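Ticket opened by: R.M.
Priority: normal
Category: complex prediction / small molecule

The reporter submitted a protein together with iron/sulfur cluster and asked that the result be attached to this ticket for the collaborator who will pick it up next week. Submitted input follows.
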Amino acid sequence: MDFRNIKVSLKASNVMMTVDAYRIFSERYDYPVHIGITETGPTFPGAIKSAVGLGVLLSEGIGDTMRVSLTAEPEEEVRVAYEILRALGIRKRGAEIISCPTCGRCQVDLRPIAQEVELALRSIDKPISVAVMGCVVNGPGEAREADFGIAGGKGMGLLFKKGEVVRQVKEEDLLEALLSLIKEG
Ligand code: SF4
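Result attached by the on-call engineer:
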């Protein structure tokens, strides 16, 4: 039809069918493609399906623009898309949270703390990594590659930067202390 400036989208809700379709198309044509898995469901299953499908395609160099389609707020779609790009090392923006899975050594209720930290850091644009670890013995060492971090103890916690302990603070002051440390840079 003589249209030259086009971009092609081949979305489906089946992950592997979508991947195959984009692979076949990209082998045959040079047109840019808009990638996505469509109708993936609510945030949890949708984010996983999108991450698997888009992760495979992007790791093979397929995809020029992308959309994550969730039955959720549009902001969630953008957050998931950024996480996919960040996991692949394609975009770096905002804080990446590294938190430990916890084990018998864990001395705090880590889940709500990790959630609070994640929420508090959503507004940060700086590309930093922040660790939230469950014990003071192994936490700072296990997360030495993180730019900043906290490790929980009994009623207290350690604040650390690149694996080096900065200071000890009361458990209830951990989040605020972490945020000021990040602000200081
Ligand atoms: S940081 Fe501590 S609590 Fe977390 S997994 Fe490692 S040893 Fe277990």
